[in-house]
Design brief:
Length: about 250
């Protein structure tokens, strides 16, 4: 059986598993809807984004954690040309951030093989692997996600917001994929050792043969942060905290 036929069989098996899993995947209409208790004021948000004499400049990057004996890993920057969004950090924004944090799904790591299989499955069926939705869905005021400022990310993750008013702001990058090499041991064979005893008996002892292997795991990253801008200040920041680790003030 050639590789193309094997790949086709694998995709078909993925499709069957996908369709079978649909019975166990929560549908959007089955989710419980949660609304913020605070009232959103579009006028207040627009005023907070009015012209000022402050700036917020910085660099956005994903910095993986490293242990005591682990080699420090290089930061990965969002794609050049992607955007960072800035919202006034009002009481409504604060509640929305906390609600989304509480009810968001845990992001998983996937190998390149899984991502390629999902892409082939999408080409074959028009649908990818069903998304596991949370039990509760947060619904916000429809005007809230329309009032913001955006900065385009340049080389090495650099960005800048100019002409801001003094105040507190919530920053959020576009979601991007990060790949990390992961080393592991893979059993590639088995070695058998024979032992001959004085009584003529022979015993056999088997042990696995291991080889160093590596693979690349991919996961989604969304960089977020809350920053205070003081009157007349040109502040420099590092936007490097991923959403999954974010503890909103």
């Amino acid at each position: 059986m050639n590789r193309r036929l094997l790949a086709a069989c694998f995709v078909c098996l993925q499709a069957v598993a996908c369709w079978g899993a649909l019975d166990f995947v929560l549908k959007p209409e089955e989710q419980e809807v949660i609304y913020p208790k605070s009232v959103f004021s579009a006028e207040q948000a627009k005023q907070a984004l009015g012209p000022g004499n402050c700036s917020l400049r910085g660099v956005a990057f994903e910095q993986p954690a490293s242990g005591f004996l682990q080699k420090a890993k290089a930061p990965q920057y969002p794609p050049k040309g992607s955007k960072i969004y800035l919202f006034p950090y009002t009481e409504y924004t604060r509640e929305v951030v906390h609600l989304f944090k509480e009810h968001s799904q845990i992001r998983e790591e996937h190998s390149a093989e899984v991502l390629m299989a999902e892409a082939r499955l999408r080409l074959l069926t028009g649908e990818g692997i069903p998304e596991m939705l949370p039990l509760k869905r947060v619904e916000v005021d429809p005007v809230f996600p329309k009032i913001w400022k955006a900065a385009v990310i340049g080389p090495q993750g650099k960005f800048a917001f100019e002409g801001l008013k003094p105040g507190r702001y919530y920053l959020q990058s576009m979601t991007f994929m990060v790949g990390r090499n992961q080393a592991y041991l893979d059993q590639v064979g088995e070695e058998t050792q024979e032992t001959y005893w004085s009584n003529g008996e022979v015993s056999y002892d088997s042990r696995p043969i291991w080889a160093d292997k590596s693979t690349t795991l991919y996961h989604k990253v969304e960089l977020v942060g809350v920053y205070d801008v003081v009157a007349g200040e040109n502040q420099s920041i590092e936007l490097r905290e991923d959403w999954k680790d974010f503890d909103a003030p």
